[in-house]
Amino acid sequence: MSQKALRWFFPGVALLMFGTFLMALLSQYIPPNFTELLSNVTGTLSFCIMLTLVLIAVRPKAIERRLGLTNMYEVHAWMAMVLPVTLAIHVFIRWSGLENVLTLNLTNTSILGYVGLTSLIIVMLTGIFVLSDTIIKKSKQLMNLKNKANRNFHLWLHRLAIVSIVGIHFHVYNVEYLLDNTPFRLLATVYTVLVLGWYAIYKIRLARLPKYQVIRTHQPSPKIHEIELQPTKGDRMDYQAGQFGFFRFVDSQVSSEAHPFSFASSPTRNQDTIIVMIQEDGDFTSTLANVKEGDQVTIEGPYGDFYPAEVRDSNEPMVLLSGGIGLTPSLSVLREEIAQNSDRRIVFIWGVGYEDQLMFYDQLKDLSNKYPNFSHHIIFSEEEVDGFPHGFVDNDFIHAEGLEEFYQTATWHVCGPPPMLEAAKSLLAENNVTEDQLNIEEFAF
Ligand SMILES: Cc1cc2nc3c(=O)[nH]c(=O)nc-3n(C[C@H](O)[C@H](O)[C@H](O)COP(=O)(O)OP(=O)(O)OC[C@H]3O[C@@H](n4cnc5c(N)ncnc54)[C@H](O)[C@@H]3O)c2cc1C
C-alpha cells in the first residue's frame, strides 16, 4: 500500500468503529428527528476519533514502519482538528443552543460529559499549540510561543486524554436511550478497554526498557555532542542504519524527557554500541555538556525507514543529501555501506552553514580517495569558505558538481531541518524524481 493510501488507515479505523456503533444504535433506537440523529452521529464519531488518536499515540510499529512517524503525527493532528467540529455540533445540540447550559440542569450524564469535554479541550490546546507544529508552522509568532512553552508540562496535560475517554465512556453508559442497548454499551466497553489496555501495555514497556550507559562523549564541532552508549546488560537494540529512537536520560544531570535522535552509527560495524550526534538547539540539547560517562539512558525504538530493505538489497546508485545536523542518518547509512564492503555508487551531499560546523572532513576525503564509487560534495550557505562552493543545494549546484544523472538513476535519501527539506522536495520534484526514489527523514514532528 502506498504511503498516500496508508494515511487513510487511522481515519479508516475510526470510521469502522463508528459504523459498528451506528448499526448497534439503529438496531434498537430510531432517532425521532434529524437533529437527534445528528447529535448521535457526531457524539459517537467524536468518541471513535478520540480512541483512534490514542491508538496513534501508542505508535503501532507495523504502521509506523510504512507510514513514518512524522506522517503518523500529521494524521493525528488533522484528525484532532476534525474532533472539535464533531464535538461542537454534538454539544451544541445537547445544550439546545445554550438553553440547557444556562439552566445548569446537571445529571450524571451531563456531569460525565463535562468532565470528558473539559479535559478534551485542554488536550486539544496542548496538542495544537505546544506538542505539534502541523497546524501552526506557518505562523512565526505561534511557533515562538510553542518553543517557549514547557513541553514536559504540556505533555502531562495532554495525557488528560485518558481521563476524557473514561469520562465519555461513562457518559455514554448513562445516556437514557442507551441504558437497554446492550450491543452499543458492549462495543463502547470493548473498544475502550482494548485501546486503554494497549496504551497501558505500551507505558509498562517504556518503563521496563533496557538501560544503556554512556561510555564516551565528544564534541566534533562546538555545538555538536557525540555520545556513545552501550547496553548495561544484554544485547544492543537491533536497528537498521538511518533509523531513530527516543532517548531518555534516566539517571543523569539532564532532563529525563524523551527526545528523538537518529542513530549515527553503523549496526554492522558498531556491534555493541549506539552512537548519536546531537546539536545544541534548545532547552534540553543545550544542557548536554552535563552528560557524563556512566550516565544511564533508555532508548525506545527503533523507528523510521530512511534506508528501506529494497535499497539495502540493491546495488543501485544512492544520493545521501543532508542539511546541517540532518547529516546523522546519512552518516549511519554511509558507515553501514562501508561496513558491508559495498561497491555501489554513493553520492554524499552536505549543506553546511558555517565553517566551524564542518565535521569528519578528513574521513570523507579519505573515503573519496579510497573508493572510486564514493564522492562527497559540500556547500556552505552562511559564510564563504576557501575551497568550497557558497550557496544552497539547488539545481545549479547539482549541475556544477556533475550530479544531474542521479535524478533519474539513484534513490535519494534526504534529511535536514524543515526549510531545507521543503527546498529539496521542490528541487527533486522539478527534476522528476519519483516518490519511489525518495526517502525523507524530517527532524520535526
Ligand atoms: C525523527 C527525528 C530525528 C532527529 N534526529 C536528530 C539527531 O540525530 N540529532 C539532532 O541534533 N537532532 C535530531 N532531531 C531533533 C531533536 O529531536 C530536537 O532538536 C530536540 O528534541 C530539541 O529539543 P530541545 O529541548 O533542545 O529544543 P527546544 O527548543 O525545546 O525544541 C526545538 C524543537 O524540537 C521540538 N522538540 C522539543 N522537545 C521534543 C521532544 N521531546 N520530542 C519531539 N520534539 C521535540 C520542539 O517542538 C521544537 O520544535 C531529530 C528529530 C526527529 C523528529
TrEMBL record:
Domain of life: Bacteria
Limits of the FAD-binding FR-type domain: 207-309
Cofactor(s) annotated in UniProt: FAD
Classification via Gene3D superfamilies: Nucleotide-binding domain of ferredoxin-NADP reductase (FNR) module (3.40.50.80), Translation factors (2.40.30.10)
Keywords: 2Fe-2S, FAD, Flavoprotein, Iron, Iron-sulfur, Membrane, Metal-binding, Oxidoreductase, Transmembrane, Transmembrane helix
Cross-referenced SUPFAM superfamilies: Ferredoxin reductase-like, C-terminal NADP-linked domain, Riboflavin synthase domain-like
Transmembrane residue ranges: 12-31, 37-58, 78-96, 111-132, 153-172, 184-202
InterPro entries from the UniProt entry: FAD-bd_8, FAD-bd_FR_type, FNR_nucleotide-bd, MRET, OxRdtase_FAD/NAD-bd, Riboflavin_synthase-like_b-brl
PANTHER family per UniProt: 1,2-PHENYLACETYL-COA EPOXIDASE, SUBUNIT E (PTHR47354:SF8), NADH OXIDOREDUCTASE HCR (PTHR47354)
Protein name: FAD-dependent oxidoreductase
The species this protein was found in: Fundicoccus culcitae
Taxonomy of the source species: Bacteria, Bacillati, Bacillota, Bacilli, Lactobacillales
